[in-house]
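Why should sequence recovery work at all? Because a backbone constrains its sequence more than one might expect. Tight turns favour small or flexible residues, buried strands favour hydrophobic ones, and helices have their own preferences. The token representation captures these environments compactly. In the example below, the structure is given first.
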């Protein structure tokens, strides 16, 4: 895949002017703090998953190269930029200590044996994950009126959509090679959609809370309420139509059939993403 003009001129952390942050708009917003801090943890740990994927696609030079040279680098940049934002607005939060606790636990979830059984199915699963992350950051951009965070979330969302496009192209190639039918693809999409609110997000919340508010961490009910508030913030700021279309795309359904099932699928997505 030839890099697009946008990829050649990819943004850098230097493009994020932290001095322009309107701290008063976000400083007291606890839910926004957790949304950004948790995202910074998951993105910063993406190299663990990249190494598993590179091993899984060993021998496919195109996929290996893209994973190492673009996907991993951009994901880690997302984490670094989000961390910089957190540390600028909430300097009292001990990011390194909280992240180390997260990483110690999160690394247990990142194992090659936990990937999908075939390369095509794992690429379909990646499409679901990239759909979820692009949806998250677009919702985050809509949820805040702080201009620097809005800009940063928009940049990351665009990256995630571009990552989706790469994974989808590779998926189509492997689907032809493996000759897998829609039923297996649908099984992967359904399973991974149900897992969108997965252990990595739960892990991030736990470790952010343990350092930011230890007294809250000792009360699972209050942590659950916090997670619910974060979900509500995303819920009221997402556009489910785009999310549904992205998740459905690997099925490559005829237009008439896609139209027929779009409403029940939307109800299903509302239940999964918004619960």
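From this structural description, the recovered sequence reads:
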């Amino acid at each position: 895949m030839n890099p697009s003009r946008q990829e050649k001129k990819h943004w850098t952390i230097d493009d994020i002017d932290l001095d322009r942050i309107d701290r008063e708009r976000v400083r007291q917003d606890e839910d926004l703090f957790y949304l950004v801090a948790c995202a910074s943890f998951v993105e910063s740990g993406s190299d663990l998953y990249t190494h598993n994927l590179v091993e899984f696609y060993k021998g496919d030079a195109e996929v290996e190269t893209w994973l190492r040279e673009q996907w991993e680098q951009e994901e880690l940049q997302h984490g670094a930029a989000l961390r910089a934002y957190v540390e600028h607005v909430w300097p009292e939060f001990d990011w390194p200590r909280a992240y180390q606790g997260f990483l110690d636990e999160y690394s247990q979830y990142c194992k090659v044996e936990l990937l999908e059984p075939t390369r095509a199915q794992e690429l379909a699963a990646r499409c679901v994950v990239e759909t979820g992350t692009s949806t998250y950051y677009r919702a985050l951009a809509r949820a805040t009126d702080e201009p620097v965070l809005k800009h940063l979330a928009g940049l990351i969302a665009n990256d995630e959509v571009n990552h989706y496009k790469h994974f989808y192209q590779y998926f189509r190639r492997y689907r032809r090679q493996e000759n897998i039918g829609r039923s297996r693809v649908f099984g992967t999409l359904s399973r991974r959609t149900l897992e969108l609110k997965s252990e990595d997000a739960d892990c991030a919340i736990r470790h952010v809370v343990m350092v930011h508010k230890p007294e809250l961490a000792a009360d699972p009910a209050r942590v659950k309420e916090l997670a619910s508030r974060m979900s509500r913030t995303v819920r009221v700021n997402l556009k489910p139509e785009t999310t549904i279309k992205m998740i459905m795309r690997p099925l490559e359904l005829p237009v008439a059939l896609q139209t027929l099932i779009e409403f029940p699928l939307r109800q299903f997505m509302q239940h999964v993403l918004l619960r």
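A few observations help interpret the result. The chain has 14 helices and no strands.
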